[in-house]
Backbone:
């Protein structure tokens, strides 16, 4: 007999599981090359060679007791220092090792910080569309995820609605830019305005509202788009970062939190994050991955690969008659579905062997997410199928 709380969660996750299973079945029936699986954000660019070289070198040359041993729950001090130096060089900040907690990817970073901050009933506000797992991460600590409705004009957050929804129970606001699922980057104007609102509200409430910025796609931006570094705009900012996408290491489970010294109750929050890392059972981020990424902080992924996919897909969808906004970052495209019922549309897409995720999984019906972190050929071969799907809808 499983926990009551888990019963709903298991049921709720079955839609995605069913899609995964269906994709596998379809691949067996029609051949993998005839199935266009755009459902997962699993990078199709291999990790830079430097990562494997760093791991091999560490394993061959460093003391195994050091490489494989326990360390401080927040991570190796020299790795945290290397991360701080890299951030300072790139963003003109003044972080030290005492501002960094190494984590088991962004997923654990978010869980650690929610564990550290949330009392039961505390509210975390986020802007739709958003990464669906946020509901679970906040729910893990009996917090409540409060959604701001989507601004489908340009997918920048609706700040007027935020102002109305901040209450006595608001502990944190959670943002994600470049955004999964829209590929939109929140502009500097947005971040400045957001900071103004939070500063006003902190004053009237007489206590901090933390801004948690989830940034696994920070470096995945196209052209001359820049992503504002949020700690510079709002004092009570905590950053959750991951190497899953930027270095194509999702299976390695490695990332970090940045907890700036300026933060209200910095010492307590930093200490709580260390304890949360331990008692959630992570204990510490994986040691070999910590040491390896510390040597690869200047490495980048092949952004040209994703850019080529982005252009091919975006132009092809427009040509087929669909409407969508061109992504500025990450590797997702959020297309408007020709009918409001995005579940039905995604179901219909399967007839053409196309697997995409309904917008309602991200709190935004009437849209579907296409993860274009796939082989270029998958996009080229899928476009005639998208065209056939468009014709079915009379586009
Ligand atoms: N946050 C967002 C917005 C994501 O898209 C993902 C993964 O897709 C995560 C967090 C979790 O990433 P990680 O692999 O670092 O745990």
Residues:
């Amino acid at each position: 007999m499983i926990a009551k709380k888990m019963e709903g969660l298991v049921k709720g996750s079955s839609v995605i599981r069913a899609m995964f299973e269906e994709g596998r079945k379809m691949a067996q029936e029609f051949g993998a090359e005839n199935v266009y699986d755009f459902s997962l954000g699993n990078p199709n660019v291999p990790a830079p060679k430097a990562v494997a070289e760093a791991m091999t070198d560490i394993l061959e040359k460093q003391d195994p007791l050091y490489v494989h041993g326990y360390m401080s729950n927040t991570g190796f001090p020299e790795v945290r220092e290397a991360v701080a130096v890299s951030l300072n060089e790139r963003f003109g900040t003044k972080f030290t090792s005492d501002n960094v907690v190494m984590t088991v990817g962004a997923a654990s970073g978010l869980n650690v910080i929610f564990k550290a901050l949330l009392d039961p009933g505390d509210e975390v506000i986020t802007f739709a569309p958003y990464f669906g797992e946020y509901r679970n991460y906040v729910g893990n600590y009996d917090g409540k995820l409060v959604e701001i409705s989507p601004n489908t004009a340009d997918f920048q957050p609706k700040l007027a609605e935020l102002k109305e929804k901040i209450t006595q129970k608001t502990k944190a606001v959670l943002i994600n830019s470049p955004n999964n699922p829209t590929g939109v980057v929140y502009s500097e104007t947005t971040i400045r305005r957001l900071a103004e609102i939070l500063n006003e509200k902190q004053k009237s409430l007489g206590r901090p509202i933390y801004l948690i910025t989830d940034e696994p796609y920070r470096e995945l931006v196209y052209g001359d788009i820049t992503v504002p570094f949020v700690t510079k705009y709002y004092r009570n900012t905590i950053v959750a970062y991951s190497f899953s996408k930027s270095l194509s290491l999702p299976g390695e489970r490695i990332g970090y939190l940045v907890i700036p010294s300026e933060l209200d109750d910095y010492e307590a929050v930093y200490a709580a994050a260390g304890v949360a890392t331990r008692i959630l059972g992570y204990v510490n981020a994986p040691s070999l991955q910590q040491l390896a990424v510390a040597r690869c902080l200047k490495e980048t992924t092949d952004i040209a690969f994703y850019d080529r996919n982005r252009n091919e897909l975006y132009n092809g969808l427009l040509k087929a008659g669909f409407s969508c906004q061109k992504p500025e970052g990450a590797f997702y495209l959020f297309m408007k579905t020709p009918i409001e019922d995005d579940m039905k549309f995604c179901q219909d897409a399967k007839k053409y062997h196309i697997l995409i995720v309904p917008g309602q999984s991200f709190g935004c019906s009437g849209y579907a997410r296409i993860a274009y972190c796939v082989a270029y050929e998958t996009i080229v071969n899928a476009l005639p199928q998208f065209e056939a799907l468009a014709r079915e809808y009379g586009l």
